[in-house]
TrEMBL record:
It comes from Pseudanabaena yagii GIHE-NHR1. InterPro entries: Amino_oxidase (IPR002937), FAD/NAD-bd_sf (IPR036188), Zeta_carotene_desat/Oxidored (IPR050464). This is FAD-dependent oxidoreductase. Gene3D superfamilies: FAD/NAD(P)-binding domain. Pfam families: Amino_oxidase (PF01593). Residues 15-454 form the Amine oxidase domain.
Amino acid sequence: MTDKPKVIVVGAGWAGLGATYQLTKQGYDVTLLEAGAQAGGLVAGWKTAGGRSVEAGIHGFWYPYRNIFSLVKELELDPFTPWTRSAQYSPAGLEVESPIFQDLPRLPSPLGTFAYTQFKRLPLSDRLSALPLMYAVVDFDNSDDAWKRYDGITARELFRQYGVSERLYRESFEPMLLVGLFAPGEQCSAAAALGMLYYFILAHQADFDVVWCRGTVGEKIFKPWCDRITSLGGKILTNRRVSDLRVDGSGKVTGVICGEETFDADAVVFSVGISGMQKIVSNSAALQKRREFRNLMNLGAIDVLAVRLWFDRKINIPRPSNACFGFDATTGWTFFDLNALHDEYADETGSVIEVDFYHANQFLPLDNQEIVTIVQQYLATCLQEFSNATVVDSSVIRLPRAVTHFAPGSYQHLLRPITSFPNLYMSGDWIITNHGSWSQEKAYVTGLEAANLVTQQFSQGNMAQILPIEADEPHIQIARSLNQNLRNLAKSMIPNFSLP
C-alpha cells in the first residue's frame, strides 16, 4: 500500500488481537489500545509478589476451536496439553466421568455423548427424559429467527417444557449452564443455552474434548502473538482507556480519544467485553447519541472468583479438570490440578490447585482467608485428601462483572459487527455472528470478521480465511430441513403461526 489507512482497535483480548494481527498482515497502519497494563487484559495473567503465576481463571480450548488451533499453528507455538479427561462432583461425591470422546467409535450425534459419558448415580430413566429436547436442538439453527424464538424464555422453562426430569436438569443440565453460561437456568436465555450446549456437547461426539494451556495464556500465546504483531509494524499501547470518539459531520469516526490523547482513525474496531463497553458508553457523548449503544446498558455481566492454592503435599487427583455443582444453589465452580496442566508446577512438591467460581456474587464481599477456608472445605468434600493438607500460599482474585450474562431477552440488545457509524465495527464474544462458535473461539472469529469488514471498506488487502464449524451430521441436516419446511407450510396456512 502507498496510502495506509489508519485503524484503531480497542481491547487486546482474543477479538482485538485477532483483528489487529489480520489487518497488520495486510499492511494497514494499526494501533491497538488496551485499558489494562498488558495485552490480554484479565486473560493474560500476572505474577504474585512471590513470583508465582496466576490468572483470572483457567481457559479450556475445545475440539471445535478450529480457528484458534490454526492460529497457534501459524504462530509456530506449542502451548497446549494433550486432550484431557474430566469429572464432575457434587456434595455427594463423584457424579460423572467423561472420556476422550474422539478415541471412541463415533456414533451419530448426540448418541455418543450420552452413551460414553459415565454417570455414576443418574438413572437411565432420567437420562432418557432428555430425548424430547432434541426437537428444540434441531429447531434452533443459530439463525436470527431462532434466536428471537427462544431468547424470550429461560433455559429452565425450556427444559421443563420438553419434559426433562427434575433430577436430570439439576444434576446434568444446570451444572453445564453454571460453568458454560455462568448462571442458573432460570437466569439464562433458552437460545443461549441451546447454542452453547450444541456447540460444546451435542453437535458432534468429539466436541466436548478439551486441551488446556500449559501455563498462563498471556505467556504461552498472547506474548508471542503480540511480538509477531509488532514485528509486522503494528502498535500495541497499554494503559489507554478510551473516553470518547471524535466524529465528523457525516457521522464518520475520525479519532479515538483516551483522556488527553487522540488517535486519528480511518476505521475503528471495538473489541472489549460488555462491562468495558458499558463504561465507554457511559463516558462517550458520541456513543450516547446512538440508540444501539444506549441499549447496551440493558445487558448484564456476572461476577467471577478465581482462587489459586498451594498445598504442603501432593494430593491424588484422578482427573486434571473438574466441575462441581450443588454446593451453592446459584453458583457453579471448577477445580484444576495445575501440577498436571502447567509446566511451571509439574515438579512442585505440593499440589497447586486453581478453583474458579461463576455467579460468585455472595463470595466477593468475604475476606481472603474466609474464601480460602471455604474453598478447602469444598475441595475436601470432593476429595477427602484435601482435608489433611495445609495451604501454604494462596491467591484470591475478585472479578466483578467479568463475563457476559446472556439473560432472557438480551438478544435484542446485542450488537452486530456493523454499526450505524459507517467505519466503526464491533467484535467480541457477545457480538452477534452466524459462525456458531462460542467463548474464546467466537471472540477470535468476530475479530477476524471485523478485520474483513475493514478490508472491504478500503478494498485493500486479502480477506481472512475463517474456518467454519464442522457441518451438522446428515441426520441433523435432514431433520432441520424437514422442520423448516413444516414451519414454512404452517406459516403459509396460518400467518401468525409460531412455535416457542
